[in-house]
Design goal:
- The structure is a single chain.
- This protein is α/β, with parallel strands linked by helices.
- The chain contains 10 helices and 13 strands.
- The longest helix is centred in the last third of the chain and has 25 residues.
- It is globular and about 60 Å long.
- The termini are far apart.
Length: 345
Amino acid sequence: MQNKIRIKLVSKYPRAFKLLEYPEFSHDDIEWVLDWDATDYDWFVVCDDLPGHDGERLSLRVEDLACPQSRTILLTYEPSSVKFYGRDYVKQFGTVLTSHELEILKHPNRYFVPPVGVWYYGTMDHVRAHPTPPDKTSDISMFMSFKAQKHTMHHLRAGFMQALADKLGNQVDLFGRDLKFVEHKAEGTDSYRYQIAIENHVAPHHWTEKLSDAYLGYCLPFYFGCPNASDYFPSESFIELDINDVEASVDIIRHAIANNAYEKRLDAIIEARRRVIEDYNIHSLLASHILEKPEGKAHGGDGRILSRHAMMRRDIPTFLRYAFDKTNHRRRNKKRFKKNFRYIS
């Protein structure tokens, strides 16, 4: 390919495309455009939402496209229980890459992908520091959050993790903003054999940095979350817990440690780590979707992309549709969590 395809990337999350600054994520056929004000590009990609202008609490940014609308992509990051996008916002995009359930996010050209690209483990320098597993001097770590919203699974997750912490006692080292704070999760993974990783949402294809950060630190995760995680990682690279059964989960953890599960599964953990670094990142994900298209360079743009809040303020019918759909969505979520899980009160 004579000219690289220029892909403009924007997000309200400052760290969404941070990894693309490293040479490991460069591409022979693609130029990543990280300038939010750039007007020369072939594809336009939004992770979650458009960034706000200086001083805006809620983004009202509008992108006058320099490429056809068919060459726009929305990447979702938060799960459907946390972020509701609304039908009018979503239908602006030519393609949607998402872990949201089919019945919740409807689009004629959507693909299931996990919300990859964000690491809390650390930088590429942390990753490069350990081409092989480091010395493991401790058993279990767990990063806890005390978020407890009841229209999401945060309430369930917080209750389960606190129950595990109470049962395991000194067997587990606790990290978190309100516990032992660390700048990078590498400080709570690199010296540990195991990590307890609990998602705040359960849906096929939805696994997050809670799982991938454990692999980056060469940990064996005790995991609850994505029901088809084995479609992405070796089945031996994690041990499933039952969030509805604390006693059984504690037994699983203690039995695994007593039987040296970490050492027996290390090859699977190393392969899972390789996949996080090489396969499951925004660089690879976007390249696979864009380079398979027959079109090359773009020739002019058409249309606009509005931020979520700019879209909501477009007119009264749009706002009412969003408000009505979001209210019903939250009500259904809360009923589903109460029905399927024990720790919701």
